[in-house]
Amino acid sequence: MTRALVVDDSHFMRTVISDILETGGIDVVDTASNGAKAVDKVADVDPDVVTMDVEMPEMNGIEAVEAIMDDHPVPILMLSALTTEDADATLEAMEKGAVDTFAKPGGTISTELSGHSEELVAAVEDVAAADPTAGHDVQQTTSTAGGDDFVDDPTLLVGASTGGPNVVESILASLPREADFRILVVQHMPDQFTSRFAKRLDESSDYDIKEAADGARIGGGEGLVARGDYHMRVSGYSNGRLRVRLDQSERRHSVRPAIDVTMESAAERVTDPTVAAVLTGMGTDGAAGVRAIKDAGGHTFAQDEETSAVFGIPERAIETGCVDEVLPAERLTEAITDSIRRST
């Protein structure tokens, strides 16, 4: 049985979360009312997973995540309100080592959380299965092999889920601007968070990255992050510019946005070189997309098990036989870049 520590400064929320998890078959071994107490209790009870509030007195969630990862690493799920401030803080907590996030419906003191019990239990179980130390502080290696003579109009498609934000950011931050990619990112993440994630990618990268809007067009040096709760499809491509459409059609693999939707539509529409990379995450999303990109003549990469917080998505893609290379997180930018260099 999965053993959880519930951390929240609200007694009401600690009770609600604990009841949901216990009903879902998770053993809540203890609770804590702030980050400082959480750090001590993690060391005492050694839980399989921690649910962590963001804003708390004495020591907030970000500080607690950093202390736990330094002293006694365990998988941590951030429980965040759907606010800009909490979204920024949650992304920072994930940078410090938290594995994933779950959005509290209805705000910090959420009376609506019970209506999302199954999703919360599933998220806690997924995070409990993660390697909390994998994929953090990724330092990409780069290659100058073959110089900077790249093919024209390449497109890069990146798909990730649990544990993915840090790896996605590290790849884009080190991607050479002269490669002139058109970038599409699908990161499984709650709505209201994807705009803040796109902003972080834009700030850390030489590429112009935005959250996707319906009908958005991008050319070389630009990228889009799929909006939370919307599929992102490539609807058109001409003269090195691609266009996307957003829709709320049926979830695929129980997720929206789905990696497969974006990759399959790109394979169908984009006629210039394509590169696809599937990263850490739970589930099977991305496998069909990788197959489609490979069948269309593109290059395909998967993150390896050792550096993946959760190996589900890469493993399912590898099993298709359509992945060109399986690589540690820190070598992905190098491989992606080398794949579009002109042959000499």
Overall description:
This protein is of the alpha/beta class and 344 residues long. It has 2 domains: 126 residues, Response regulator (Rossmann fold); 184 residues, Methylesterase CheB, C-terminal domain (Rossmann fold, 3-Layer(aba) Sandwich). Helices cover 34% and strands 22% of the residues. The protein has a 7-stranded parallel β-sheet with strand order 8-10-7-6-13-14-15, sandwiched between helices. Strands 2-1-3-4-5 form a 5-stranded parallel β-sheet, with helices on both faces. Strands 9-12-11 form a 3-stranded antiparallel β-sheet. Helix 6 packs parallel to helix 7. The longest helix has 13 residues. It is elongated. Its main location: cytoplasm. One of its GO terms (biological process) is phosphorelay signal transduction system. Keywords: Chemotaxis, Cytoplasm, Hydrolase, Phosphoprotein. It holds the Pfam family Response_reg.
